[in-house]
Structures are given as structure tokens and as C-alpha cells.
Amino acid sequence: MIVTREHSYPFIPYRPERYPEDEMLRRGRGFYELMDQRRSVRFFSDDPVPRECVELAVRAANTAPSGAHQQPWKFVLIGDAETKKRVREAAEAEERRNYEGGRLPPDWREALAPLETTSDKAYLETVPWLVVCFAEKYEPRLDGTKRKHYYVNESVGIACGMFIAALHTMGLSTLTHTPNPMAFLTEICERPSNERPYILFPVGYAADDAEVPDLTRKPLSEVLIEMP
């Protein structure tokens, strides 16, 4: 469907609530502690997840800031078993070329080795939902011209981060799966040429016996640089 959103926005008052300092810190620490528990999961339960949970996560993602408020993203929801099977088979075919076929460069293989990832993506069929985020390069106009989108990668990346945070807040798990190349997702999801696959998210509960690498995150002193 071709749509246009070229218009001027009215400006309205914005008065976000200001909290006392102790409440600000309490909220900030609580959010940090919640997100610090988040891990990428590759072992999922097949227990059903309410569709509304995924919808709420997409709603949260849709609040993300974007270049010129163009919101250059689409989220495709897959729950059908046959379609999930097609996605898994296509993803594994590409990953086998990466892992077993030598397409991954040596330095990338070395970086991945401690995580013990392989071309096996069985979880793509196990999870109740797959969500594929597509980035819109441009938007077709009714007259056949193209409305260019700006800061697409930055905008879609922020939206995906908010999607992940929303899932984790609800007790759900996911993984940022980016098989390369990902053109098969365009075909399976029947998306137009102005969109490109960005991230494939399996969405569900972590399996009861799920394990993750015992990783540590960089300390604040390494990621926050204060100018003199």
C-alpha cells in the first residue's frame, strides 16, 4: 500500500513529570537492574505467549525517535508453524555457508568461538513467535516518486532496542539473529523492494534448562568518558 505523510505537525505543550531526586534514582536503578539481567537466549520453551505481549513490544518500539519522524520500520509477526519452518531452513542454509562453508572471515570466527554458536537454529521453530524487523529505505509516493528516509539505520536500531527492552520487561526472551545475507526473509515475508531485513527476533520464554555464557559487561569506567 502506498501512503503519504507529508504535512506540518501542530505543536502541543509537553510537560513530562519531574521526580524528586531520590525517586529519579530509584527508578533509574530499578530499570538498570532489570536490564542488567537481560541475556540473549538460544534455548526456548514452546509454551504459548499471548499475541498481545508481542503487540505491546512493537507498540513500545514504535515510540522510538526517528529521523524527521519518518519511522522507517516494519515489524512482521510470524506464528504459523510452516512459515517458521521455512525461515529456519533458509536461515540454516545461509549459516552453514558461513560456519561450514568458510564464508565467515577468520577474525569473526575467532570472536564467535567463545559463544559456541553454530549453524543450528532449531529455536526458530520452537518459539511461539518470530518477529522480523524491516528497515524502509524510502516510502513510495502516490505519484510514483520516492520519499527518501533519513538516518534509517540509527532509527531502526533504536526501535529494535526498545522492542528488546519491552520484551524483557514482560519476562520474555529473544535473540538478535542476523543471518547474512537475509534476502530470504524478504521473500518469505513478502515484503516490497523498499524494505530490507534488519533483525530476526525469536520471541518466547527461555527454556527451563536454558544456559547462556557467563559473560561480564564492561564497567562504567570503560564506557562513560567525562570531559574535563
From TrEMBL:
UniProtKB keywords: Flavoprotein, FMN, Oxidoreductase
Domain Nitroreductase: from-to ranges: 37-205
Molecular functions per Gene Ontology: oxidoreductase activity
Pfam (any one): Nitroreductase
SUPFAM superfamilies, sorted: FMN-dependent nitroreductase-like
Protein name: Nitroreductase family protein
Phylogenetic classification of the source organism: Bacteria, Bacillati, Actinomycetota, Actinomycetes, Streptosporangiales
